[in-house]
Amino acid sequence: MDTMLTIVVPCYNEEEVLPISSKELLIFLLKMIEAEKISNESQIMFVDDGSKDNTWEIIEQLSNEDKHYTGIKFSRNFGHQNALVAGLTSAEPYSDAIVTIDADLQDDINSIEQMIDAYHDGNDVVYGVRGNRDSDTAFKRKTAEGFYSVMKKLGINMVPNHADFRLLSKRATQTLLEFKEENLFLRGMVPLVGYPSAKVFYARKERAAGESKYPLKKMLSFAFEGITSFSIAPIKFIRNLGIFILIIGIIYMAYIFGRNISGNTISGWSSIVGSIWLLGGIQMISLSIVGEYIGKIYTEVKRRPRFIIEKNIRDK
Ligand code: UDP
Ligand code: MG
User: Could you state, in order of their start, the residue ranges of all structural domains in the chain?
Assistant: First the structure.
């Protein structure tokens, strides 16, 4: 089979786990080459995301030992999502398909075989989906569940329990790279690419070595990034809140007016409180209108493709 597969592995301070995972990845790659599912040109590409430890030295040494290893190094830390895009960008010209996988072996390397099979069956995108999250802490599991349900409510199409373990065909990669946005949230962007897709289920394991590079703070900012990159629902929320407050203001004013007629009020107080609610509501609504325009500008500047053509009769 002459499918040239590149496995892209983002690495940030992974000196502890890299000697283990690089070996397992190579064993797997050679097995796939042996089985003639991929070509002997296939490679494992490490993307060193500005590590401060010996990660890059390990990558260089690996590439000297075996031609199936290759790597690129960032000048500083740019983050996981940027590392993935860099890997896709540099592998795309010479790869038929690209798999992205974390360096820590939490994702099951062996399920890449099913991904390759699904690719040969004509799928352009194959999502790795966790069958269970037993290896995560209860807290991480709950927050993840909450996150997916919020995203769904906001109308953002995501594959639940899928992180960044996936296979992309050449054309799916090219299309994804057409999305020029700066704020990357790949697991929300990939479904927008379209094309035939499939899912492969696997059991997510513990980290083989080292520590998570996603502490709570980074996780929360990543979740917020996901919401604000894909939805202007928070602006709509402010608008609805403004309308609600305005209605309360109007009802309150009517009530005061009634009390005034019966002469049963402290002078000055009610008109001040009434104006606070009325003006508060009007201001909030105005803010959300400005926000709507900013939301429009935001989607404009992203310059996402307006359409993606899968087939054209003329090309036959
Ligand atoms: N990673 C990266 N840059 C960063 C943080 C993480 O390239 O700034 C890589 C890391 O080396 C690993 C992957 O992203 O290969 C996922 O990180 P991690 O396993 O620490 O996250 P978790 O699985 O705990 O969510
Ligand atoms: Mg991990």
Answer: 5-211+304-315, 233-302
pLDDT at 83: 96
Residues 160/201, Cβ–Cβ less than 8 Å: no
Measuring from atom 16 of ligand 1, which residue has the nearest CA? Answer: 102
Q: Identify the sign of the CA torsion 123, 308, 147, 49.
A: positive
- pTM exceeds cut of 0.85: no
Tell me which ligand sits closest to the C-alpha of residue 163. 1
* CATH node for 5-211+304-315: 3.90.550.10
Q: What is the DSSP string of 130-176?
A: EEE-TTS-HHHHHHHHHHHHHHHHTT----TTEEEEEEEEHHHHHHH
Ligand 2 centre to CA of 107 (Å) is 8
Q: What percent of the chain shows pLDDT beyond 90?
A: 55
Q: Quickly tell me which residue has 């790869």 as its tokens.
A: 95
Instruction: Band the pLDDT of 265: cuts 50, 70, 90.
Output: low
Spatial separation of the C-alpha atoms in residues 173 and 95, rounded to whole Å: 10
> Does residue 134 sit in helix, strand or coil?
coil
Amino acid at 303: R
pLDDT of residue 82: 94
**Distance from the CA of 210 to the center of ligand 2, in angstroms?**
9
| Site to substitute for ligand 1 among 80, 107, 165, 220, most atoms within 8 A of C-beta | 80
Go through the chain and tell me how many residues it has. 316
From 7, 8, 9, 12, give the residue whose CB has the most ligand 1 atoms within 8 Å, as the site to mutate: 12
